[in-house]
Amino acid sequence: MADVAIQCDHVWKRFTRGERVDSLRDALPALARWVLRRRREELGKRQFWALSEVSFEVQRGEVLGIIGPNGAGKSTLLKILSSILVPNRGSISIHGRLTALIEVGAGFHQDLTGRENVYLNGAILGMSRREIRRKMSEIVDFAGVSEFLDTPVKRYSSGMQARLGFSIAAHMDPDILLVDEVLAVGDAQFQQRCLERMHYFANSGRSIIFISHNLQAVSELCPQTLLLINGRRECLGPTAEVIQTYMATMKQQDIVPMRGPTSIHRVRLLDEHGSESNHFEAAGRARLAFDLALDKPPSEYLLGFALKRVTDGLLVADYNLELPLDGDVRGPVPMAIDFAANFLSGSYSITLFLVEKATYDKVVYLDFVKMFNVVEKNSIAGVVHVSPQLQCLKKTSCAGST
Length: 402
Hints:
Helix content is 25%, strand content 34%. The protein has 402 residues and is of the alpha/beta class. A hairpin with a 5-residue loop joins strand 13 (301-309) and strand 14. The radius of gyration is 27 Å and the shape is globular.
């Protein structure tokens, strides 16, 4: 337990939809119903569990991501960890000074200047006046609002207010940091600075819980990730695997024959040795094998093949391929697409679809039919593995020249 920063033990949280008590006459029966339900441990008609038996631990210096669809209970969990809400069942243990980056800038007073709000918001977050004064220039430079520091924040855009709010919270010195979707504030350049700040916290031994819909940021920042679905813990493990589970859950697509017997069956992803796999080394080879059945001659169709990065939906490759079939073959015919996994580390998905040449109508569409991970042994950033080779063109300067 000495190394545990956060412990969440079988936490449940209940909410009521649209409950409103206007008088003592309404309040007394409502109280009686609440006591009876509490004894029987059952939900009322308008009640629901926002969280159900959620458990996990975060060690000191560990970064944990939390992902899931809207309404999965992510923000509710963070508010319980921040002591904004109290769980109905279960317990939370926090060991260390905690700061939460939730709805940054929400406590700004609109008639005060940016400078005055830095002092006000910093004090609310637990910073001393001396600490705020010492960090003022860093806070202002990070937010990029130095020109408007003595202007009332009601003159700021919503983006400027969010940037300043994040900057104040980001210059705290906590043991534990809770972050809820704040990397969506500001422009792309500021978002990159936010992400770099998160990396700084992670590398300096802080414990971080990072909630975001930006799966690429979660993938870069968090070695381990928790997936919440409908308020329940779906899985907890290595981020790449959890993201794959999340995308498979959200994007489950079965074979869709839209007309007659035309279909794609028995899709397998194989490595260079012919074994089914979902893990490949960068610049390795992969084979997508499947059976194809047609209701018209092959010459009337094109096969679509697309690769996307799972974490942000970036389209890596998109091809329309002629079917290498003769005559009036209808199938089912075993087919394969061989391709180079020239990608850097990350999670990728495969989409297969069959279209009519004449109309380009999709006859079969299989999104996320397969997903796989690519592992890059070297520390390289980006998407595509281009295998650069550095050469010396001046012979007298090259190594080994005489």
